[in-house]
């Protein structure tokens, strides 16, 4: 498993949808188009469990409870 990268701070609006968040993360990490399909996001919940946020989710970030200082993790499989 590769070592974790340094944290990246992203500014998002609560009304942003999940698809837009995926695009913003891909741009911030400079993920090549070929690797974007394998990208996965997880949100750390208040009880410290991780919830995977599916790119096809129709909810906005407010529904997911994304607030200031929310911690998210991204996995990008590069071939």
TrEMBL record:
<protein>
    <recommendedName>
        <fullName>Ubiquitin-like domain-containing protein</fullName>
    </recommendedName>
</protein>
